[in-house]
Structures are given as structure tokens and as C-alpha cells.
Amino acid sequence: LVCLSTWLFVRVDEPDWELLEKIDFLGIVYIIIFLGSMQFVLEEGVRKEWFDSHEILFFSVVAAVAGIAMFYRELTIEHPIVDLWAFRNFNFAVGCVFSFILGVGMYTTIYLMPLYLASVKGLNSLQIGQYVMVTGLFQLLSAFVAGPLAKVLDSRLMMALGLSLYGLGSWMNADLTHESGYWEFFWPQALRGFALMFAFLPINTLALGTLPPEEVKNASGLYNLMRNLGGAIGLAVANTLMIQLNKQHYAVLRESVAPGSPQAQSVLAGLQERMAGLSLPNSEQAALKQLYGLVMREAEVLTLNTLFHILSLVFLFALLLMPLVRKVSADAGGAAGGH
Q: Which fold has domain 90-243+310-339?
């Protein structure tokens, strides 16, 4: 319905069919190979243990070669499929960095939350949906506040507010336990959802508002690509960190669950008694397995808290870039936003 409505009713401009003769098909092939190979490496790297895999190594080399070829071609031909010279505009370049960071935060939290709710809380898909829908609802509500504010508030101040709120929401999410319930998840998600529109609107304005009108169409594609790349790279890094942090936290917790620990022996005795009450054939082994599961669960909780702390620091870094951004007039921002 959205596609059909756009085709029928949206009138931004008319197609220029002469451009078909100037399409850079070789550039398209390089981009497909470059981004496709890189996406494969990012998504499969963790599972295949990165460069220990010949497959990952091969596609990394392919991505590097295709990337170099793509950049060389797009920077040297008269009609590139992607005009990389847009990055000469300083505001646009910094705006793309902000878009990348926002992609890291947005896609990583969307990935981490359901994973945690399923593995630690043991929720089903419907229950997980009831938890994570909070972000979307508050993003919708914030549009009614952020829209009018964008017309009167300095874009830089508004973006700083959005990034700060998103970072604060991530920090609030970094104090979870396995007993944390719906409301412990509600407010951090509500804050992050509310912050998204305060970040999206001014980033669009600041990144695209200082570009000449004829460059906006091409630049908006690059701008959106940076957000998606941020999400892909953010997920790959989060997956890698998750595996490493789980091992580290488990190793630390395991030291406390030693034969000489009175607390560990007390918990183990209680579990063994419970297993015996269930008439299991080998209650001692079942109790040990249960204890291992408890330690792994706590390691996962600590891992998620650490990852949310890291996300908060990423958004703090984004705030440090704010002094580099030049102010954009409301008229310029509105024009860019329209495109």
C-alpha cells in the first residue's frame, strides 16, 4: 500500500530517462561485490571464528579489492553511480558519522533486547514483543514533540539532546538482574524511543542542509547507507564482544563457585535436594548441571550490562563531535529534509 500510494500521489520530481544512458554498470557491480562480501563477513564472522575460517578470509580479501576498485572508479569517472565527492562537505561528513553511530545504537539494542529476554528471562516471542514495542510507541509519541521543536530549536542543540537521552537510556539499561521485570525494561526503552526523533530530524538537517540542491539526492543515499553500515558493524562487534565477555564473566563467577565455598555448597545442596525430590536417577549430576546454568545466566546478565555501558560511551563520544558541526538555517534544513 505504501509503495502504491507513493507511486500515485508523491510528486517530488519527474524521471530523467536520459540518465539510463549514463548508468555506471561496472560501478554497480563493484558496489554489489564490496557491500555483499563485507555483509557476509560481518554476519558470519563470529560463527566461523573470523580469520580462522578460509571462507571469511577469502571474502574479506574480495571485499577489500572490490572496495578499492569501487572507490577508485567512483572518484575518477564523470558520471559515478555514487558520488563520493559529497564527503567534501564537512557537515555532511560529520552528519554521516552521527548517522553511523545512531545505526550502531538503534540496531544493536533491537538485537540485544530480544536475545536477553529469551535466554535469561525465558520469554516467548509474544511476550518479547510486548516488552520491545515500548521503544516504537514512544518514538511515535516523540514525533508530535520533536516536529514542532525542530522549527524553533537549534538543530545542534536538539541533536545533542537526542544523543544524550539515547545514551542515558542505554546506561539505565545497564543495571539489570535476572529478576528485572517489565518496568525495569520499560523506562530505558521509553527514553531511547523518545530520543530517536530528536536525533533523526536534526541529523537529516545538519547533514543535508548545507549541500547544493542537485547533490542532495545522491548524498541522502550515502547518508542512509552509513546508518545501515553502522547497524551491520555494530551487530558484528556486539556478537564478538558478547562471546568474549560471556567467557570472561563466566571465568570470574566460576572462581566463586569452588568446592571450598560455603555459599556454593549450600546452593548445590539445595539443588540436589530438589532434584532428588523430582525422583531423578542422578540428582547430583542434575544439580551440577543446574548450577552451571545459573552461573551462565548470571554471566549473560553481566555481559548485557557491559554492552549497554559500551553503547552509552559510544553516544558520549558522539557528543564530543558536536562542536565540529556548523549551524544550518531552518530553510535549508527543511529543503534537505523534504528530499
A: Growth Hormone; Chain: A; (1.20.1250)
